[in-house]
Amino acid sequence: MEHNSARSIPISAAAEQLGTTARMLRYRESLGLLPVTKEQPTGRGHRHRRFSEADLSTVAAGLELERSYDITPTALSFALRVLSEPATMASVRAYGERLGRLAPRPARAMDFEKQKALRLLRQQGR
């Protein structure tokens, strides 16, 4: 008998359980919103994605975030990108500061001392 935790289902059954479509799940996968799979291609070289209970739970959590915050899958994908890429986060933060939606980060004492030292070096070079 198969253990429930090892059970996996095809994309069509996963979509039905999640209240969405297989096409939307494939779209979400293209955005990086599905758990990474380690399955090897089956059939004629095509990978037939299967979903474990953990996968279904993770996708359901993403769908709930979208509903709770009234955002699109694309917006959720970008939010994850901001959280995982420091350069993207810095760009978005700078934009938020320019808009006035985010307060500038407080200057740290070391930053102040560094700026002071650079000013002194520039003055000495004149």
Ordered list of secondary-structure elements with their pairings:
Elements: E1 8-10, H1 11-18, H2 22-30, E2 50-52, H3 53-69, H4 73-84, H5 86-99, H6 109-124
Helix pairs in contact: 4-5
Protein name: HTH merR-type domain-containing protein
Domain HTH merR-type: 10-59
Folded structure, characterized:
The chain has two domains: 1-71, Multidrug-efflux Transporter Regulator, Chain: A, Domain 2; 85-126, no CATH class. Strands 1-2 form a two-stranded antiparallel ribbon. Helices cover 60% and strands 5% of the residues. 6% of the residues are buried. It has helices spanning 11-18, 22-30, 53-69, 73-84, 86-99, 109-124, and strands at 8-10, 50-52. It is elongated and about 70 Å long. InterPro entries: DNA-bd_dom_put_sf (IPR009061), MerR-type_HTH_dom (IPR000551).
